[in-house]
Every structure is written in structure tokens, then in C-alpha cells.
Amino acid sequence: MVLAYNTLRTTKDIDAIFEPKSIAFEIALEIANDSEIKLTDNWLNDAVKLFPFPGNQVDGVAKVLYENNGLTLRVASPKYLFAMKAWSGREVDEDDLRILWPLCEFNSASECLDYIEQACSLTIINPRIQYIVEEVAESFKFLES
């Protein structure tokens, strides 16, 4: 979020999809050990692979930040990041959701929930996800009556 959207980031890790996994983790550990910005050993993780990408496709409008020598760095769109963070239902992501909400330009909690349902290929929205989205929307006074 910091690199792509010039916002403060409230969570302390970076979720990524990468191969080969062992080499990426080895390099991430070296960076953490050499870093002046005091990264934790697990600052890079691949937990995002648990997200239910429809048809194994990632965000079609992801922004390419860097591409060279077989390495491509992309950041998901604000809406896709919002969907992933809401889907996870983690309390630690709620501040990030509040940061992302204005970037997503949702008009209501209902519109946001429809997007999450589509992005995550859900047939039923988990009540925890609905509660989080409604809380965030309410804080921006866009919650439908």
C-alpha cells in the first residue's frame, strides 16, 4: 500500500505470490537482517495464496511497479486489496480498509459487498466480512439506510 498508493500502512508485512519460494524467503531474510528499517524475519509472506482467486486469476487491473530481468512487481488495485483484506476478516486489517475505502470509490456497503462477492467467487458473504464492511462504510457515512 505504501509504494502504490502513497498511504500509511498499518500492517507490517508484505503479501506476495512468488517462485521459487525458498530463494525468495532466503533473500527476504537477508534483507531483514541487513535492513536499517528494522524488518521482522517474516516481513514477506505468501499467505495471499489462500485468497480464493476466481479461475486462478489475480487482479486484472493490478498496477505494474517494476519489470526487469524476469521480475515483475505488481500491486493489486485498491478494490482488490480491499476485497482481500475484508475476506481475511482480520481485525488488524481494519485500519487498512479505512485507508483503502476512499480509493475504492464505493458508494455504499452494499456495492462493496457485491464487489467482494464477485472478486472472491462467494455465494454467501460471511457475517464477519459484512460487519467489517458496514463498520468501515459507516465511518465514511455511505452506509445504506
Could you describe the 3D structure shown?
This protein is mostly helical. It has one domain (2-139). Helices cover 44% and strands 10% of the residues. It contains six helices and four strands; from the N terminus they run H-E-H-E-E-E-H-H-H-H. It has helices at 2-5, 21-34, 78-88, 94-104, 109-119, 127-139, and strands at 14-15, 44-45, 63-68, 71-75. The strands form two sheets. The chain has a two-stranded parallel ribbon. It starts with a helix and ends in a 6-residue tail after the last helix. The model has no long low-confidence stretch (mean pLDDT 83).
Brief write-up:
By secondary structure, the chain is mostly helical.
Q: Which SSEs are present, and which pair or pack?
A:
Elements: H1 2-5, E1 14-15, H2 21-34, E2 44-45, E3 63-68, E4 71-75, H3 78-88, H4 94-104, H5 109-119, H6 127-139
Parallel strand pairs: 1-2
Antiparallel strand pairs: 3-4
Helix pairs in contact: 3-4, 3-5, 4-6, 5-6
Q: Any key phrases for this structure?
A:
44% helix; two-stranded parallel sheet; globular; single chain; 145 residues; mainly alpha; two-stranded antiparallel ribbon
> How would you characterize the largest beta sheet?
2 strands, parallel
| SS elements, strand count | 4
**Approximately what portion of the residues adopt beta-strand conformation?**
5-15%
Oligomer: single chain
Which structural category fits the helices and strands? mainly alpha
Helix content: 40-55%
